[in-house]
Amino acid sequence: MKSLDDCRVAIDKLDSQMLDLLNERMRVVHRVGEIKKESGGAIYRPEREKAIIDRLEAQSKEKGGLLNKSAIAAIFLEIFAVSRNLEKPELIAYLGPEGTFTHQAAESRFGAMSDYLSLGSINAVFKTLEAKRAKFGVVPIENSKDGIVGETLDLLAKSSVKIVAELYMPIHMSFVTKAKKLSDIKRIYSKDKGFGQCREFLSEHGLVNVELIPVDSTAKAAILASQDESAAAICSHIAAKLYSVPTMFENIEDEHDSSTRFVILSDFKNAISGDDKTSILVKLEDAKEAGSLVHFLKDFDDENINLSKIESRPSKGNAGFGYWFYIDFYGHVDEAHIQKVLAKHDAEVTWLGSYVKGEDEV
Ligand SMILES: O=C(O)C(=O)C[C@]1(C(=O)O)C=C[C@@H](O)C=C1
Asked: What GO MF terms are annotated (predicted)?
């Protein structure tokens, strides 16, 4: 049986081997970067990253390894993020401020080494990408409890920016304060939705008569709580850490299964991964005629294309009332059966992106 010292000697040796291997990997990645520079190819290739993680998961299973898929993904997503940064450092704009759930989502995909740009609105993220001031944008698109983020859909409808990836993140709220005890708290800051999601917690802890002050973001709430010892904030774990406000309670949301879907925006088309989703916008030409949507959807059904979401939005044009539809379906725009359906509706459909299906989709 190995002693603790023996184990640490073995760990040190393995860590050194891993570092040598990682450096060797980075030399190959550097060459990939040169090849892509010559060809103008996209640096971020989510379908290739997915294929690597799937292959390693199968290898780990086969060999009885202790690492499961999420552990492998957590380690390798960071390696990919470092690799991409080495190939070409690219700026990632997100709906800020720092410490929002969107910031957390961006970091989970682009890692600790990337350069981030925190922006004040979803519109600013789109504008920054359109002006090519950043390569990627990260914005929320829907929450499992609150539904769709209308602003993101409306901007996708108007913009040339495309969806290149999606990710689902569980949303947990923390109650953070510099106060020593609950009775010292005179005011609580959060986003209006933050209060809405934690009603039971507030009443169970006798906090209903404390002043609840809605602010623009949960990160802003953390900043305000960091400056006032008789205040608390309902915010994300990362905001509390970032602004050094001690956490009094974690996971205080009424329902623990809430998650938000985020999209990563950019300006390129992914290759087919075999497990993709596509988002489109549909403006039916004869939208006033009953059954036009049914006919449209029947074409999808005929090709066995399954929808994962359909959302109607009022069109804000000046041609009176009208609707357009935002649709997500399984498959990639370059697959033949999908091309066949979309070709029939060429004039009515705007393609918003095809991307690897998010891991935590329920
Ligand atoms: O294979 C590529 O295209 C690479 O750029 C290499 C690599 C990797 O680290 O394995 C890095 C970034 C891409 O998103 C996918 C994979």
From this structure: chorismate mutase activity; prephenate dehydratase activity
